[in-house]
Design a protein that fits this description.
The structure is a single chain. By secondary structure, the protein is an alpha+beta fold. The protein is built from 9 helices and 19 strands. It has a 6-stranded mixed sheet, sandwiched between helices. Strands 12-14-10-15 form a 4-stranded antiparallel sheet, with helices on one face. It is elongated and about 80 Å long. 46% of the residues are buried. The mean pLDDT is 97.
Length: 383
Amino acid sequence: MPLCPLDPARLTADLIRCPSVTPEEGGALRLLEGVLSEAGFACTRVDRGGVSNLFARWGAKGAARSFGFNGHTDVVPVGDAAAWSVPPFDAVERDGMLWGRGATDMKSGVAAFAAAAVDFVTQTPPDGAVILAITGDEEGDAVDGTRALLDWMEANGERMSACLVGEPTCPERMGEMIKIGRRGSLSAWITLTGVQGHSAYPHRARNPLPAMARLMDRLSSHTLDAGTDHFDPSTLAVVTIDTGNPATNVIPAECRATVNIRFNDTHDGASLTAWLRAEIDRVAEECGIAGEMRVKVSGEAFLTPPGPLSDLVARAVEAETGVVPALSTTGGTSDARFVKDHCPVVEFGLVGQTMHQVDERVEIAQIHQLKAIYSQILRDYFT
């Protein structure tokens, strides 16, 4: 058992030195398994589909109360390594900052909740269980990461009563935002097919490009909704239009486009897919062409209504930072979209200004502050 508090900044640095670019484990989960096992956590590797995951529980299986943390140790690629001021996996400390890939997103968050959990269970053992569900596939396809952990938990009678995801949530300053939900995300790949022909004889061809322009204008100018009590209005972005046609004297037979919709709880993936299909069919009929679509829903919109869990986290954040956090549903998707089917979930973590950037870095003092917040949450939850 550790005799002194676990330093979350040192643990963050050790994790950064593990080159765990998705889907490589890089030694990060092995490191955490060693730290947590020493503190009395029962650790199980839940690997699936070439992805490494770690489940760790302190306390009795099936405890009436169990507080969980969720996070990931995988990171995005470094990009141009020569553009970095420091080697991206050296965990350099400079000017009060810790530099390296994953410093913000989110090895610091994992280190902070692991350190808080270890200190809590060794110093004041709770009446209940503390669970850490850590994945190596959040930055990838997210098929065999947190989903695999939750599937394994379901099959083995493991349960979290509530969960906090340690993703960076604060836009500018520490403590300003808790995520109580997330928008859904839908991507659609659309293909319109006409008849190829000579551009000097357009009447002999059936040009899919004007049809695609018409379709994209209709989709992007359509107001999906006006927002809801906890969500901003849904948005649709046209992210690419392609023909692959280098010739000026050829009308191509095919045009492709991709759109991404970030949607609130007014919609779900099925209703938006039906709307897109109807718009494609309408333009196809008007222009005498064929239309096809492939859709991927990365996650549905969800909300954990303000209540006991968000209040618990907000009190701890304010006590440590002096900031009253806003309850938000902004941003992209996170693994909370999977956890919400298991138990109530919110997200709180560091300022995320440099995540995924060259020279990613985190303020060392904030790592200690985050551990203090997570420690207070555990104390309050089990009191």
